[in-house]
Amino acid sequence: MARPPVSPWPHVPPVCTYVPAAAHRRGRGEREAPGQDLGPPVTPAGHQRWSTLDVPRCWMLSFLGALPVSRNLRTPDLREFNEALHRCAGGRRRDGSRRHGRARHAAGFGRRSKGGFQAGVKITNLGDPITGWSLRFTFPDSGQKVAQGWNATWSQSGATATAANVDWNRTLATGAAADLGFTGTTTGANPTPASFTLNGVTCTGSTTTTTTPTTPTTPTTTTTPSPGGTPLAANGQLHVCGVHLCNEANRAIQLRGMSTHGLQWFDSCYNDASLDALANDWHADLLRIAMYVQEKGYETNPAWFTDRVNTLVGEAEERGMYAIVDFHTLTPGDPNYNLDRAKTFFAAVAARNAARKNVIYEIANEPNGVSWSSIKSYAEQVIPVIRAADPDAVVIVGTRGWSSLGVSDGSDETEIVNNPVNATNIMYTFHFYAASHKDNYRATVSRAAAKLPLFVTEFGTVTATGGGTLDQASTTAWLDLLDQLQISYANWTYSDADESSAALQPGTCAGRDYGTGRLTASGALVRSRIATPDHF
């Protein structure tokens, strides 16, 4: 039997003050353009906005809002949500003495929408480290139900919903945060829960008012020549800032999408109908274009493969998606074997696409059987070729042990941290297959993400062979972690290959139907995650 979580607080509950306010979050079709800062939320007449307050050593809960979605959760549509401010007092210092202060609590559900909604909660530990936690709240309306959640183990008994930690976020150090969320269903009204408890401690209070002067804002314009309401229009030219992928407005973002299979085998899968489905039904942010070098790939017909990659980059741009150009080396595992081919290929592709803002270059898919120093040497020769034509694009560098940060070779991220590639605006690749790569791999990513900009350019829901049974629990744990760390990802594969990692059922690409009825179990699971609203 699991031991009950330990509360970080004394038994005296904190006193809280609730301040109502209103704001508007922007959804997938209503995003600010790159470089366009629309300022703080606009407050309707009769409402107040919360202002920033000092924060004590206690828990800070931020209920991030909810959005109605259709009953089958296919077409998210963000609506207004309410923000609330709780001022908490009564916490204690580590020496046991009392400390008074304030904590910010933003809370809200969407407007009434029969069918469903989505909501998020952020927990930030401002006190001593804690191991084991449980969040509880009560739905005000009997028709509100939790359907599916992430980043916690969600359950519901009557009107009471509970979110308990999962293994990888069980421990929260001082200053650490956990972002949780769930999709829910409702049969009528959709009011905000009145209170939340964490490990049994309730934060409640009485209403006060806070006034904030309003200042008109003048939106700036953007020159991004991309369709409105798309990931590309929202973010423009990407770059690396710190350990994150950031947009033109210097905001950290996460991209989610799909990888093609080898173009030499599954080129027929990438047509107008399939790409429209990926952009408009899946709401994918990116398409990874996997161009094999060997195995009847690029080396057999460089001109055809180069042209096909360029065409798909343009197709992605037309639909407002980013495109990863994947130089898919696998066997031999030493990327230096293909160094000359890489220079030729990337010189041509970078020259062709330099004016586009949607291109990301992945220069070595899965190095294996080779040292990090050799991979680094390869990268430092290929990157200047790209930069000569396209100086602004993000470049992703493969890592040792089939892009496992060296874990599959018995190493870890420290070899990269201690000897990074001598280049700027780069990220490092991590790949995983959920049924094969579990806790020790997740622990490495959690640790490495604090020091290295990571991009999961390929992952599978099954074993590393691309086959086997779907591991839903491990896949969910992985995607929860990537969401928490804001690490972008692409799933292997958007194809109808006769293997369990494929998103489409065999024979799909021979027709024109790429709807949900043609998805495999893996495709349905991954689509359910990708189709949720972005946080740009």
UniProtKB/TrEMBL annotation:
InterPro entries: CBD2, CBM2/CBM3_carb-bd_dom_sf, CBM2_carb-bd_dom_sf, GH, Glyco_hydro_5, Glyco_hydro_5_CS. It holds the Pfam family Cellulase. Residues 96-206 form the CBM2 domain. Keywords: Carbohydrate metabolism, Cellulose degradation, Glycosidase, Hydrolase, Polysaccharide degradation, Signal. Its EC number is 3.2.1.4. It catalyses: Endohydrolysis of (1->4)-beta-D-glucosidic linkages in cellulose, lichenin and cereal beta-D-glucans. The keyword Signal applies. Residues 91-105 have a biased composition (Basic residues). Residues 23-47, 91-113, 206-231 are annotated as: Disordered. SUPFAM superfamilies: (Trans)glycosidases (SSF51445), Carbohydrate-binding domain (SSF49384). It is an enzyme of class 3 (hydrolase). PANTHER family: ENDO-BETA-1,4-GLUCANASE A, GLYCOSIDE HYDROLASE FAMILY 5 DOMAIN-CONTAINING PROTEIN. Belongs to the glycosyl hydrolase 5 (cellulase A) family. This is Endoglucanase. It comes from Amycolatopsis bullii. The lineage of its organism: Bacteria, Bacillati, Actinomycetota, Actinomycetes, Pseudonocardiales.
